[in-house]
Design goal:
HEAT repeat domain-containing protein; alpha+beta; two-stranded antiparallel sheet; 5-stranded mixed sheet
Length: 402
Amino acid sequence: MPSIDELLPLGPGKDLPALRALDPELLARYVADRGNPWWRRRHCVHALEGRVPQACVPELIARVKDTGDTGEVRIALLDVLGDRPELLPWVRHEDRRDEKASGMPAALLRTRGRLGDLSAVPGLAAMAADPWARNREAGEAGLDALAARHGPAAVLALLDEKRPQDRMVRVRTRARAGEDVTGALADPDRAVAHLAASLADDADRLRSCAADPDSPVEAALWAAYALHRLTEDASAAREVWTRLGRPRVEVDGLDEETRAAIVHAYAPDCRRLSDPRWRIEALVTAPPAPVDVRDQLRRAAAALTGAGFEHGAPVSVGEHNHQGEGSYWVLPRGEFPVSVSTLGRFVTCHDPDPAVRRTLEAAGFRWFDPAVDDVTVTGLCVYFFGSRKPLGAGDLLFYWQD
């Protein structure tokens, strides 16, 4: 029989089926020993799911409570042991508020939900509204456990309608019960309205909401957006958009060419706090002509070479930065590389020599000068290094995310 270390060699692989074939007491003892590598201990915890030896529970619970142990191991142990009632006083203790290890606050709240602690409802509701999937899923799991134990009404009774995150719980609960959620499309908080649009599944109700002259503009647009999600037919969205006067988010200084490139690249997958006008604009307007990136790079390189500017072979921004991906390629030029967008004929460079700009413009490119052209694209929220706030036009045309 291979050892745990042999089943979990260095590297990304793991052999969970083989670990589950090992004696659970052997696994539990391995987990309890802090001298073993934390990542191997975590895999062993996963292999204990549903078969934790009773004799080992006290020692494993001691590892959960050990704030000096690795958070990933403690979180995995809470996943496996989180239904044990002896943990409730500890997870509820005020000292747990000082737990800062990544993932621990979410794991502790989820455990309180699994153990039936209704006082965790406000915290779980806030966590279920978190944009990070790991936290959101933990919050929803904790709320689901409470609803299963005490009934949905007991959970809903503890919600504060003034808090958007609590209204989101109500929307999810109604959707799961097969009830109408279109009323929430008019919620003043876009996160709530976006959730309702993502859960609404009655096309007739959505058509009615979209056509109702008394519906607020955003509610009608959310209804049109949700209807397209169900039917994949943009004609209904176009009809609503036209009837409402073709509403869009006006951004001073954003020209139509740049706007079209940004709308069709980012609005379809923008973040939930985005103005629904951007989403509908992406549905009902024609996208720019596809960009032949290879041809653009060839023309930019030829123009620079012809003007006497030396440069290296083009590389993607991910390759240029040795990680990540984005919306432009780079022509290396020492201190002043040239960036060529994949979203249109946009180029930029920090080289103070104006001849570089003249050369590329003569080749049919459009020079993007952040000092002159960069404007914040309001209402369009795009993920960028942990933030989900509106970005500048330059950040979007020349976007890189590690």
